[in-house]
Amino acid sequence: MYDNKRVRDYMVPVKEYPVIYEDYTAAEAFSIMRESFHQKDGTWYGFQSLLVINDREELVGILTLRSLLKAFKIQAMLDHLLKGDPMGLFFMPRFHNSLQIVTKDIMRPLSLITVQEDCVIFEAIVTMVKWKINSLPVMSGKELVGIVRTIDLFWSVGEFLE
């Protein structure tokens, strides 16, 4: 039975996933990701990644919550360096906007790690564990059709164990 379960049976369809442009700042991306969360019966639900498109509306990557948190750490270090030097205070207003981290600099390119929609769930689990990722783009040939997340695979394993 477990061998019959395919990634397409558990993925979130691409049309249901939040999307941002590659030139959005990390702060803008964080805001959009935060908007996807909602609370129900004391539990938070939402997406921990965003699909990234370019100005031609082509999907080019995936931005994860982990990448955003790393970006904020880098931004905080840059801000600290500029504020720590008295000369940095002079130049900070002028250069602060140019130091804003943009999505295309911190996203994972779509082509790097993917899985086909007809592969078995176990293959997706192995891929996610191997690459230490929580969101995996699902392809039909070369077309992105969805995203499978660790929580989706968690439920599939639960069904197998029943």
TrEMBL record:
| UniProt-recorded name of the protein | CBS domain-containing protein
- The question of whether RNA-binding is a record keyword is answered with no
Which UniProt keywords are given for this protein, alphabetically ordered? CBS domain, Repeat
Which InterPro entries does this one have?
Answer: CBS_dom, CBS_dom_sf, CBS_domain-containing
Coiled-coil features, chain-numbered ranges: none
* Higher taxonomy: Bacteria, Bacillati, Bacillota, Clostridia, Eubacteriales
Any Pfam family: CBS
Q: Tell me where in this chain the CBS domain is found.
A: 11-80, 107-162
Record carries keyword Repeat: yes
